[in-house]
Amino acid sequence: MSDSAFSAWIGRSEEAHDQLSRNLVKRIAATFGEATPAHGEALPPLWHWAFFQEPVAENGLGEDGHPARGGFLPPADNRNRMWAGGRIEFIQPLRVGGEASRISTIKHIEEKHGRTGALLFVTVQHDYLQDGQLAIREEQDIVYREPSPPKASSGEPLVAGDWREAVTPSSTLLFRYSAVTFNGHRIHYDWPYVTETEGYSGLVVHGPLIATLNLRAFCRANPQARLRSFAYRGMRPL
């Protein structure tokens, strides 16, 4: 499909509604080993990713466990879809137990050619509202790439940080995070599929899970800081 054909998707919007159920919040808290926020308290940073998930039936999924191509996002047949990164502005907290809505709009689509073949980048803006007020504005970058051997290294040296926190994600953590985010992507829990079909050396840690753990580490190291924004980019699979 040409760039001009893909451009027809730019500007498309969809709206979703959900209740920030304390039952689901309890499950997220258990997944991360955290205390459960009470009704009316602020939802911890990035836990909103567990909500507003469309309940697609199994017969509506592709071989990889993702929802079949098309619909709101542009079709990109025979390409693997990955969460590439994003930028988030925290305006005010979402409150546990309340109703909320998410308005998603496709802002940008660009096709590039790299060493692994054709890459399609899609940027989606998500506005999260509660009680009619904007709480979070997020830009999510999605990349569709042609099947190729997994990237083992980012090619960029690690930058020394001001602090560090080590986390070793277990298969249980990966499964539970898939469950609370209703994510059927098989690379996170299906060992034969991820190693034999997609060629990874083991289960792949979710990009949003890595982002959540990174931001949690920052908040722990800076308990007095007010969180205003967060940007992240996936460099290679973990």
TrEMBL record:
One of its GO terms (molecular function) is (3R)-hydroxyacyl-[acyl-carrier-protein] dehydratase activity. It comes from the Bacteria. Residues 72-134 form the FAS1-like dehydratase domain. InterPro entries: FAS1-like_DH_region (IPR039569), HotDog_dom_sf (IPR029069), Mitochondrial_HTD2 (IPR052741). It holds the Pfam family FAS1_DH_region. This is Transposase. It comes from Ectopseudomonas oleovorans.
